[in-house]
């Protein structure tokens, strides 16, 4: 069973949950970037891994990827879209759990990548979770509007448990890990890929659609 920590900056009616406790650096006023404490080249690859996680599960589950973009400033300067994004398009329909796993795949890919490269610390894992806040919020909103259910953190509550979502994402990514790493390298190198280019790097080309069919976004 996953243990969840309530973060100090959440509202009473909208608490922020993480698998790892808030680090002292954050409580002392450090930014997420400072909590990650990566040089720019490592941070760029970490962000690319996050987006590749979303993209490979999207393509594997039949959600067409239109574009992947990594900002050159790595999100340090405020602007539209965050540090990077995956745009999806076309008409598609998947089960709620596959969609949920796709939403969680960014943070779960980053966590595994850090572990495999000896970069993992509880502070960095927490920062990866917090940086994926929009992904979790998008999933929660989709579950409410499309499934009339809620996203929960913890046991003994009805609805979709995020710990289960993370486990499904981990399992799905394990079958695509080499493809994900190849795609992350391409995102890091090029900064921008069309859906067809991304699919080719991941060897999942049958899912890509033309750039002009943008309809959805997975951050």
What does this structure look like?
This protein has 219 residues and is of the alpha+beta class. Helix content is 51%, strand content 13%. It has a 4-stranded antiparallel sheet. Strands 1-2 form a two-stranded antiparallel ribbon. Strands 5-6 form a two-stranded parallel ribbon. Helix 4 packs antiparallel against helix 6 and helix 4 crosses helix 7. The radius of gyration is 17 Å and the shape is globular.
Q: Summary?
A:
The protein is of the alpha+beta class. Helix content is 51%, strand content 13%.
**CA-atom Rg in angstroms:** 17 Å
Number of strands: 8
Strand content: 5-15%
Strand order of the main beta sheet, please?
7-3-4-8
Number of helices: 9
Major pleated sheet? 4 strands, antiparallel
Provide the residue-averaged pLDDT.
90
SSE pattern, N- to C-terminal: EEHHHEEHHHEEHHEHE
Q: Which percent bin holds the helix content? A: 40-55%
Q: Indicate the structural class.
A: alpha+beta
Uncertain runs are 211-217
**Global morphology:** globular
End-to-end distance = 27 Å
